[in-house]
Amino acid sequence: MISTFPTSVLPVEARASMRVKMLEEELSSNLNSMICGFHQLLDLKDLNTGVHSTRLAEWAMRVGQELGIPEESLQELEMAAVVHDIGKIGVPDAILNKPGKLTDDEKAVMNKHPEFGWGVLRLFPALTQTSLITLHHHESFDGRGYPGNLRGSEIPLGARIVTVIDSFDAMVSDRPYRKGLPSEEAKRRLVESSGTQFDPAVVKCFLKIVDTELPTVLAAMGTGSNLVF
């Protein structure tokens, strides 16, 4: 039964607590709506990119939980996994959907998409950490990535997670210029690049999840028909 006790007669502390809770719920709702809006923009730009981001959100939560990331940071990681490619809206379709190899100039434009995404997300105070994960999701563990040439623990953990799952998903997915790889080959490449492109701890955690939870993750995503497993 819903209480009809008037809030006006509650103690000041109780009314303040209720107000804070209402504001937190409203903020959370608005934040979720904003992320959903960004995701729909990705779908409008490129349906494959939008579906790819949905898959990454599920993988990211699995890895983050396994690594013991706090609940608040898990939410930031999930949001970053959904919107990490939002900057591709700023990449011309001729480059984004090119069926062949990109020229050096085209690759330079494509490599700007983390900065494009960060430039938008950083405008929202509640998305500060999400914007940093987005900015650095193409850094390499050995410092040879972009845009900041960060290395090791200099790279936000969320970005290191997104880097691994983003790369795996990209390898096993069909793209305009190639067919997806079998999952075993994709896993082999993750291991091969562990310690150079990828954080070894994240790779180890992710591979354990891929081996034991793949059916559950795919069922939760409700997608994956274009994946090669």
Task: Please write out the topology.
Layout: H1 12-45, H2 47-66, H3 71-83, H4 93-96, H5 104-110, H6 113-121, H7 128-135, H8 157-172, H9 183-192, H10 200-221
Helix pairs in contact: 1-2, 2-3, 2-8, 2-10, 3-7, 6-7, 7-8, 8-9
Query: CATH superfamily membership, which one?
Result: Hypothetical protein af1432
Round the mean pLDDT to the nearest integer and report it: 82
The number of E-state strands comes to 0
Structural class: mainly alpha
Kindly state the percentage of residues in helix: 55-70%
Q: What is the class in the CATH system?
A: Mainly Alpha
Number of helices: 10
CATH topology: Hypothetical protein af1432
Which residue ranges are poorly predicted, with pLDDT under 50 across at least 5 consecutive positions? 223-229
Tally the structural domains: 1
Distance between the termini: 50 Å
- Alpha carbon gyration radius: 20 Å
Question: What percent of residues are in strands?
Answer: under 5%
CATH architecture assignment name = Orthogonal Bundle
